[in-house]
Amino acid sequence: MATTDFTQYDPEVPLYCANHPDTETFLRCGKCEKPICARCRVSTPVGFRCYECANLKVLPTYAVSTDYYAKAVVAGGAAAAITGVLMGLFPAFAFWAALAMGIAVPESIAAATNQKRGPGLRAVAIGAIIFGFIVGGLVLIAFPGLIPLGGINYPIPSGIPLLERLPFHITQYTILWLAMAFWLAYHRLR
Q1: pLDDT per residue over 59-77, tens digit each?
Q2: What residues contact 90, with CB distance under 8 A and at least 6 apart?
Q3: Which residues pair with 16 in a beta bridge?
Q4: Where in the chain are the domains?
Q5: d(C-alpha 89, C-alpha 108), whole Å
Q6: What is the DSSP string of 96-142?
Q7: Would 158 disulfide with which of 107, 109, 121, 171, CB 3.0-4.6 Å?
């Protein structure tokens, strides 16, 4: 039988949880005195509270809805595609293109989502950067040596047999630049 009067109680008599009427408890919310069971308690710096009194809310910066995710995918994909094309056209400047991608992708995502952050947007940014590197590789395959710049714009062989056998032009530096772009995007959107 559930107790409805929360103000008068005997500490020796078990109460019943307000949310789970079949569960006995001796615990009360530290604010509203409502009986709560172990499943309903929320640990706070001032003791256990019920869900209502704990006021569990997500910060607005991290509250990202699906329309924001759609905007983030479009903005991040566009920024990654543009910098990926530059990376493919100028393979000798891959470091600078990766640096630009690591800055442009998370900034465009943040601008499109009203400066939102969080793990979902970090995943979108990392996916967009991978997309940008793939675009760069496809442009390099489609237009090899399109803009030679006096002989300095040709891809440099890696010297690693495993990487030389891959269909894309990937060097140990490409992996390093990719990691740098990931790191920049991750830290901007955390």
Answers
A1: 677 888 999 999 999 999 9
A2: 97, 147, 149, 153
A3: 24
A4: 15-54, 66-188
A5: 22
A6: HHHHHHHHHHHHHHHHHTTS--SHHHHHHHHHHHHHHHHHHHHHHHH
A7: 171
